Amino acid sequence: MQEMFFHYIWRLQYFEHQHLFTVKGESVSVIYPGIYNTNAGPDFFNAKILIGEMEWHGHVEIHVQASDWYKHQHQEDEAYDNVVLHVVWEADRSVYRMEGSEIATVELKGKIPLSLFQKYERMQQDQAIPCEYLCQEVPEILWTSMKERVLIERLEEKANQIHLLKEYCHGDWEQVALWVLGKSLGAPLNQEPFVELSKRVPFQAVKKLKENEMQLEALYFGQSGLLLPCQEQAYAQKLIREHQYLFHKYKLSPALSPVIWQQGRMRTPSLPTVRIAQLIGLITQKDHLFQECMLSSKFQDIKALLDVEVPSYWQTHYHFGKVRKKGTGKISVTMKARIAANGVVPLLVAYGQYQGNERCMEQGIQLLESLPPEDNKYIRLWKEMGLKVENAFDVQAYLQLYKKYCAEKQCLRCVVGCAILK
């Protein structure tokens, strides 16, 4: 038995109301169950409860065992002095306020439908999706409603990260866009190293060196820590010398340690050296990255935005001294879709929030709907349940639903979970 389940039962009043009495034998009628409180303090605020002949206005506290009142030390917290009803599964003892008066207690054992318990217990078992065997009961409109809700949650979470980044970049949205695209190129394993790399590459230096591709390579590869002194390959040596010059000219921070980068068991297109080369291609061939992101509303726009050539060396190599067997080093179509979903769309939402422009959210959702769906182990779980995954909108929604609700067994906060229990 979980207390959260009791919160759900009380909030929706899913229990037998007839012959409801306190443990002292006084009749109880719920006029208004109160406002659910997810912060500190009593579980439900401002309830209206008729106990005997008297109507009480105050708070309601929920526990599995009445003695939990003392385990949680509510008797020492004046915030609980205005509790007018204690609702429990089992009333194993009486409870009192700080000033010594006893609080009316209602025991719900035997008053909650058995089918609710059975469904809830089944949803708390170890399957990856708690409602895996019950979801066919849920109308499609409720799935749609939940998907829309969690998608907005996910976009707002990512937008909040971008707002923090904007503060770090002193409000320069062009720099923010470059950082966001770099982080997206690093996904999934090298996102944080790309953020750290951006911190060690001054944006003013990037703008000044924009027309000099070789110096940009020296700047980025030198600061990444991947340009090692022991490399004897001629091109690497050239970049090392150039990096030493730039290091003193721009008073650069120390380079990253190469061990920060994930490179093992990684396909060639995902190697950090290749991704850095692609980022340099974006810098040298796109004059207004942020503006182009803001104008993107369909996948074709993203394809055009990210259709850049890597520096000539990286068209034939994937690491210093290591020749590429195939490909040109350009960003793949699949990766372009991921960058759009995880970088460009959150950037649109964040800028829309900054400007107070709700149309940016609509544009971001429109862009997601135009992107092909990603295939990963989480999305395959939903497909195996017979649910449609048609585009990146569905992917982002199902990822959020799984990670924030299913994996954490937050069924009682989910529209689908509540519908199944109801």
Automatic annotation (TrEMBL):
Known Pfam families for this protein? DUF2851 (PF11013)
What protein name does the entry list?
DUF2851 family protein
